Amino acid sequence: MRAMTPRVAVRTRGLTKEFRGFRAVDAVDLEVSEGSVHALVGPNGAGKTTLFNLLTGFLPPTSGSITVFDEDVTGRPPERVARRGVARSFQITSLFETLTSREHVELALAGRTREGFRFWRSEKLLARRRTRVDELLDQVGLAALADKPVGLLAYGRKRALELSLVLALEPRVMLLDEPTAGMGTEDVDRTIELVRRIATGRTVVFVDHNMHVVGSLADRVTVLQQGRVLAEGGYDEVRADVRVITAYLGRAEHA
Ligand SMILES: Nc1ncnc2c1ncn2[C@@H]1O[C@H](COP(=O)(O)OP(=O)(O)OP(=O)(O)O)[C@@H](O)[C@H]1O
């Protein structure tokens, strides 16, 4: 039997973003396989966030191209890219402190589906919506805290809620910007488990500075430095790459 080659979920070719002549992302060729978990790492200022913003349409590229499942989305606005199944989380999201987790997820679902806020017109739709809300909260471990105002939740739980809001969009490709930023060890480990769970059947691209997180989750790692791809491969391969070691050590020396 012939082994199936996975499709390419996201591909960039020569992707470049200049800010007044400064190349924050410089001729990046990236290939993310469908169903894989792909990490973007690199020292501060390497261009990771800018690349995320390009992939999701939040910034138009200066040159180069982006395809999502072979469809060209170069220069498309965020809502058009989102319609191709790409959803992202942010480093910092604003949640509504007085609303509960359940209310947040309900709003995310109402915003996403065609029924919008008309679900109350039909008992059937209402029941289906409730089940989906429960599933999403359960998936991120928030079932027991669903009716607490978000302002009372610990930081790690708020980040889990943010993930459920991304999941509510039912993305084919999830982009997670520093999912463990600012977390203590316990929350980091919970988040690793959570991302692993939600990555099943999906493509995930994430940025994280924590190498334990990268090593635990990533099938492939792309290392950026000064906007360029410095190295790419499996975690162990990349970690042993002299150019990567030098890039990180060089930074430590100058810190
Ligand atoms: N809107 C902008 N205008 C001008 N320069 C920018 C802009 N956005 C980013 N840059 C510059 O582009 C470079 C890459 O920034 P970016 O935020 O993408 O890096 P990063 O790898 O995400 O860094 P960090 O790990 O600190 O989040 C930096 O030198 C930054 O100052």
UniProtKB/TrEMBL annotation:
Keywords for the protein's UniProt record, in alphabetical order: ATP-binding, Nucleotide-binding, Transport
Lineage top rank: taxon: Bacteria
Protein name stated in the entry: ABC transporter ATP-binding protein
Entry annotated with the keyword Nucleotide-binding: yes
GO molecular function terms attached to this record: ATP binding
Signal peptide: none
Residue ranges constituting the ABC transporter domain according to the UniProt record: 10-251
Keyword Nuclease: no
Entry-linked InterPro entries: AAA+_ATPase, ABC_AA/LPS_Transport, ABC_transporter-like_ATP-bd, BCA_ABC_TP_C, P-loop_NTPase
Organism field: Cryptosporangium japonicum
